[in-house]
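subagent[fold] <- orchestrator: predict structure for attached chain, return tokens only, no commentary.
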Amino acid sequence: MAFAVDKKAGRPASSTTISSDDVPTTNTHNNATQAVDQEGGTAYGGDLMAERPDQGSNMAAFFNIVCVVAGTGTLGLPYSLAKGGWIGVGILILSVIMSIYTGILIIKCIYYNGHTRLASYQEIGQHAFGRIGLVAVWFFHTSIVLGAPIMYFILSGTEIRGLTEAHVDIPEKAWIWICCGAVSIPFVLMKSLKEVSLLSIFGVIATAVLVGVTMVESGLDYKNHKDIVEYDAVILRNLPIAVATISVCFGGNVVYMHVEESMRFPRSWNKVLIWAMLACCLMYAMVAVPGYLTYGREALSPILGSLPKGPSRKVATIMIVAHVLLAAPVLMTSFALEVERVFNISVEKRGVVQERIYRTVTRLIIMGAVGGIACLVPFFDSFLSLLGALGNCMLIYVLPIFFYWRLIGWRRMPWYELLWCAVILIIGLLGCVIGSIDAIKALHRDFTYGRSGK
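subagent[fold] -> orchestrator:
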């Protein structure tokens, strides 16, 4: 049984295109009446969330989520605590709860009308607010699915340069391009997230090793800093930038639609999301707490810069490079699928040969753009803060709630859930606006005066 039917041609929703003709004209009340129950998933006698035999397992979806989410901001968490104080641990816990909630809401939105499955975050935005919603989601979505790989390549180029400079004289920018070349192989060859899920398994393993090494090394180095390290319970002036940076850690919304689409049992989405996010939160805590406990206000981003030099640091560097090679294709494939959908790059539209050629050229152009930007923005921590404030705060915390209210209706929520949504919106908007301002100032200072800040 097909899991989603296009209103015009009877094709799977994954092949739909974004068009103003597809935007429903029903009002919010009618949308609420038509909305599909996330648990039931039935409407008009059909089951939009029926088993999809040709799709992947719940475990594959779990690894896809963890691979994208867990590696996004792990190494910057001790620095986030250094910026905001120990209250950052509470912000981390609050962030994971809010992210799980909005992750469930956004998937409900793709089934809102009861007779088709929306194919992307951009389509949700368009169905909710027309062209304005489409453009807004496209802007923020692109800043994440391309910004996060850029962040990965900046980190990999910096760390590989430090690891090899005693042996070979290869500049940092060259290493960035080498990493881009390595990632382009699976990015071009693997068409969808179902195929990329194998890479996600190894990406999660690499991240787990990285977390273990960082935690152990930070703990062992504590004795060298315990008499001089300084902490803060809370630094009020830095709270927005801390919230913005921590929000990067849960930036998986950009791929949730494609991950859910690749699941054989879509009704298991809530369960898979909760377990995946809890696993990510655990790994974050294992890096953040020992890192800040050992280095306090002097914790760097990435935290590898604070660890003592030695074999363990080299292992950690190798693991983060491995994560780049394995996690970046997941995010970039999500972006490429949207581009290919807009330009009708599919076997049905182009044929097997032309589809392969167009897809290869398109993805190589995307990779070239990512590598070029990565070479222009070498300051990892400031870029990470800007990325989190600008893109993640909107996509994770703000837009899912507005879209749910518009498509399904705020009247379906009890008063306490509306209050919870208001808290999420306030935190998300504050993190976006104030965090972006602080991050842009820091980035400008880095480019103008250099890392020393003088």
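orchestrator: received. Logging for downstream: Residues 1-45 have pLDDT under 50 and may be disordered. The domain at 51-449 is CATH 1.20.1740.10 (Amino acid/polyamine transporter I).
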